[in-house]
Specification:
3-stranded antiparallel β-sheet; about 15% strand; about 170 residues; alpha+beta
């Protein structure tokens, strides 16, 4: 089973059901195509800021390793580690872009593929399982309710009576 996060645009609570055709599912896990074609994958998914950072990082690392005159195998290993990082963090980069674009995370679903995960999300969405509210929101405005104060409990048990024999 694969895990997907479901993202939708921020709308007023009255329009919460209208978001159905605008949801985006982002698969969690390692992305092989981002590993193999890092810059092109970022370009394809329109991750402009991440692409700019990737290009600057690759150019900086290339210049640093060229200035240090390291061997080609070390250069290859460093670039391989950078590609591995892009493959591992590809989902996080897409989520970051969506959160910057005023989208919110609606749910987390699991499915064998994207269609099954989308079907499961909409089954829960239309069943009314807290899709109108943000599932990650926590009410932090008020202090916790006070506990009721009661008088001390009566002593129950076999205790000696005052003035009696022990």
């Amino acid at each position: 089973m694969r895990i997907y996060t479901v993202h939708g645009p921020r709308l007023a609570s009255a329009d919460a059901r209208a978001v159905g055709d605008r949801v985006v599912l982002v698969r969690d896990g390692f992305h092989v195509w981002a590993f193999v074609f890092g810059g092109f994958w970022l370009l394809y998914h329109r991750l402009w800021w991440a692409l700019l950072g990737y290009v600057v990082l690759v150019a900086g690392i290339g210049a640093l390793l060229g200035g240090l005159r390291v061997s080609g195998s070390i250069d290859f290993c460093v670039m391989l580690l950078l590609a591995l990082l892009i493959g591992l963090e590809a989902s996080s980069l897409r989520r970051w872009r969506l959160s910057r674009g005023k989208w919110r995370q609606l749910d987390i679903v699991a499915g064998a593929d994207e269609q099954e995960a989308e079907r499961r999300f909409f089954e829960r969405w239309f069943a009314g399982q807290s899709a109108a509210e943000d599932p990650m929101a926590v009410e932090r405005g008020a202090p916790p309710p006070p506990r009721p104060v009661s008088r001390p409990p009566d002593i129950v048990g076999l205790f000696p009576q005052p003035g009696g024999s022990a």
